[in-house]
TrEMBL record:
Residues 51-176 form the N-terminal Ras-GEF domain. GO terms for molecular function: guanyl-nucleotide exchange factor activity. GO terms for biological process: Ras protein signal transduction. The keyword Transport does not apply. GO terms for cellular component: plasma membrane. This is Rap guanine nucleotide exchange factor 5. The gene is RAPGEF5. It comes from the Eukaryota. It comes from Oncorhynchus mykiss. Gene3D superfamilies: Ras guanine-nucleotide exchange factors catalytic domain (1.10.840.10), Son of sevenless (SoS) protein Chain: S domain 1 (1.20.870.10). InterPro entries: Ras-like_GEF (IPR008937), Ras-like_Gua-exchang_fac_N (IPR000651), Ras_G-nucl-exch_fac_CS (IPR019804), Ras_GEF_dom_sf (IPR023578), RASGEF_cat_dom (IPR001895), RASGEF_cat_dom_sf (IPR036964).
Length: 405
């Protein structure tokens, strides 16, 4: 394979320089580098807005590296980014892209350049998930990549703000933004996101999951994603509190999350309510004694009442009684529902004296039918959903915890 000079650039100004308005979207620099010649990447594009770039040839890694170098977070056109994400499967695997992105994500926290590079990688990942949507849910490499990226985001930022006290202003703005969102609206967004997943779950998914069977189709991801969503919300709550370096703002965050959990319960979303409560009950957050001491008594009382529904005693009697009183549509705490089915399956024989134990099957079916009951009266759920700015929550699932899938 011969080597050729590669040019991957934004278009320069027209030779006559007659149109000054194009200065903002054009560049006169032509970065070049030697890479193996790849015929499939020899492309020339011309955008309708006279913004154009030229790709002669390049290795996948060099293309990605240059893409991130020239990527602008405020550029809404994203032609090069869009082209790359739409066609990367032609010349590299999804796993290769995931590993390359992790390689481009700086592990150090010093300087504005490293921070800006991280934001570029996260911006690319956010665009990728918006572009591919459900297609990414079936790829195990994506799930592993998102979990790794999530840990990097949380670990680096916690280390930066607690051990070294860096990026204080950025984290402070993030906290202020969260504190400025109406708690009912935040709960409504969480409920809407959970409901969209829960409503896509088919009853048989629970049976397939319990029996470890393959569905042989696309009806298998809604349940796993909703279960993952519960973990994401729990981690989000924990991370937001621990990354906050201001005592007063930490107190406000605790109050905020307690109110959001209460609103989720009021909106009949026990999945997110459970997750938020468990996030606040993690050991790292529970040990913030000085912070908890400054939480007003009425919020501590609300939190204590919320904790009752997570009490596992008497086979989660408090939760079951509260959930039974709720009218559909409603979102159950899915891990407990799966636990019930698994307990029935493993605690009863399928065959007795070479005859099918149909009583066992009836108990499983009766438990699974709870999904049908919870998903009924969908107009009632639509009435709870409010039109709010959900960018923060979407970003949370996509890049910080997320998510996002």
């Amino acid at each position: 394979m011969d080597l050729r000079t590669v040019t991957l650039v934004e278009a320069e100004e027209d030779e006559d320089g007659s149109d000054d308005d194009e200065d903002d979207c054009c560049s006169s620099s032509f970065p070049t580098f030697n890479v193996p010649y790849l015929p499939c990447l020899c492309v020339t594009f011309l955008c309708v807005c006279l913004f154009r770039y030229v790709v002669v040839s390049g290795t996948p890694l060099k293309i990605l590296e240059h893409l991130l170098s020239d990527l602008r977070l405020d550029d809404q056109r994203g032609l090069l980014l869009d082209d790359f994400l739409l066609t990367y499967l032609v010349f590299m695997t999804t796993n290769d892209l995931c590993q390359a992105l992790l390689g481009q994500y700086p592990l150090h926290t010093d300087g504005k350049e490293a921070l800006y590079r991280k934001r570029k990688v996260l911006h690319l990942v956010a665009h990728w998930t918006r572009l591919y949507k459900d297609f990414l849910r079936e790829d195990e490499h994506i799930k592993a990549f998102m979990k790794t990226l999530s840990r990097l985001c949380v670990c680096i930022r916690v280390c930066a703000c607690t051990a070294q006290g860096r990026h204080y202003s950025e984290l402070s703005r993030r906290t202020v933004r969260l504190l400025g969102i109406n708690t009912w609206d935040m709960a409504a967004v969480l409920t809407q996101l959970d409901w969209n997943l829960f409503n896509s779950i088919h009853e048989q998914e629970l049976v397939y999951s319990t029996m470890s069977c393959s569905t042989g189709g696309s009806h298998r991801e809604g349940l796993s994603v909703l279960l993952q969503r519960c973990n994401e919300v729990q981690q989000w709550v924990m991370s937001e509190v621990l990354m906050c370096v201001s005592l007063n703002k930490r107190v406000q965050l605790l109050k905020k999350f307690i109110k959001i959990a209460a609103h989720c319960k009021a909106q009949r979303n026990l999945n997110s309510a459970f997750a938020i409560i468990m996030g606040l009950n993690t050991a790292a957050v529970s040990r913030l004694n000085i912070t908890w001491e400054k939480v007003p008594g009425k919020f501590k009382k609300i939190f204590s009442e919320l904790e009752l529904i997570t009490d596992p005693s008497l086979n989660h009697k408090a939760y079951r009684d509260a959930f039974k009183k709720m009218k559909p549509p409603k979102i159950p705490f899915m891990p407990l529902l799966l636990k019930d089915i698994t307990f029935i399956h493993e605690g009863n024989k399928t065959f007795q004296d070479n005859l099918v134990n149909f009583q066992k099957l009836h108990m499983i079916a009766d438990t699974v039918r709870l999904i049908r009951h919870c998903q009924s009266d969908q107009l009632g759920m639509l009435s709870l959903q409010k039109t709010v700015d959900s960018n923060y929550v979407q970003q949370m699932y996509t890049v910080c915890v997320q998510a996002t899938w």
